[in-house]
From TrEMBL:
Residue intervals of the D-isomer specific 2-hydroxyacid dehydrogenase catalytic domain: 5-310
The organism of origin for this protein: Selenomonas sputigena (strain ATCC 35185 / DSM 20758 / CCUG 44933 / VPI D19B-28)
Leading EC class: oxidoreductase
Matches recorded under InterPro entries: D-iso_2-hydroxyacid_DH_PdxB, D-isomer_2_OHA_DH_cat_dom, D-isomer_DH_CS, D-isomer_DH_NAD-bd, NAD(P)-bd_dom_sf
KW rRNA-binding (keyword) present: no
GO molecular function ontology, one term from the record: 4-phosphoerythronate dehydrogenase activity
Domain of life of the source: Bacteria
Family per similarity comment: Belongs to the D-isomer specific 2-hydroxyacid dehydrogenase family.
Protein name stated in the entry: 4-phosphoerythronate dehydrogenase
Domain D-isomer specific 2-hydroxyacid dehydrogenase NAD-binding: 112-283
A Pfam family: 2-Hacid_dh_C
Alphabetical keyword list: NAD, Oxidoreductase
Entry EC number(s): 1.1.1.290, 1.1.1.95
Amino acid sequence: MKLVITEPLGLSEAQAEALKKEYLPQDLEMVYCNTPPQDDAEKAARAKGAELVMLANMPFKENVLQELSDVKFLSVAFTGVDHVAMDYCKAHDIVVSNCSGYANEAVSELAIGLAIGLYRKMLAADEAVRAGKTRAGLLGIELSGKKFGVVGAGAIGRRTIALAQAFGCEVYYYNRKEAKIDGAKYVSLDELMEVSDIVSLHVPLTAETKGLIGEKEIAKMKKTAILINTARGPVVDSKALADALKEGRIAGAGIDVFEGEPPIAGDHPLLHAPNVILAPHVGFATQEAMEKRAVIAFKNVQAFLAGKPQNVM
């Protein structure tokens, strides 16, 4: 049996071999591709003949899977699986497991970091120092006492709530289903958008959440409010957000995710909007998260081989 890791996992080959030794049969053939595939043809070529495939967040669509007649299991080293052709996998009895939980701390910390970066005008402060200027015009804002709205109360949303509470924020949250969260108030999405000083998004990308935050929702926000998106790009209407920023209808945005993986097109509306901190999808990318992710991904393969698949999507 053969396992192919089709893209880098933030590990060295020695680290990958150590995980194989700890969790997988030693007679299992493993191929670790430590450079990103250039296109779909290369993805398919790399995984050809493998029963087990491990991938991260590069798209793995039907046209790739159609070339892989031997594949039985996908270990997705990522939380979301919207980049995988799940309908095809289900129709062809390909089991898919994800690595939910590995980046809870990393993503929630970035959400708070983006909020602080906007409130303390860190980009402008950096530019001022480099230009030989003073702190004039750089009066900041504190998180403490602000109304912090969290959209999506899964594991990452809950961790973000806890961090916001630690900073002294008054926390509101919206979730598809109400859940008991100590010290946080459950409200409708409309109310959350209206009352929050900070809106932080933590929902998966589904048919229901695509475009969840559009022109109508953004129009409900305070003029002084900021929007943080570390979830998925298509959850937000980027043009509507950029327009609101350009017209001064909201105060700022911190964005780590886009409609596709960076690099993004030069005409993307958020590239030309004011008061925005943009990051190239780094929310999950910490040393600690990469280590957690790899362990879960290998344990998922171990569980599948034992006939007891876990984290199945």
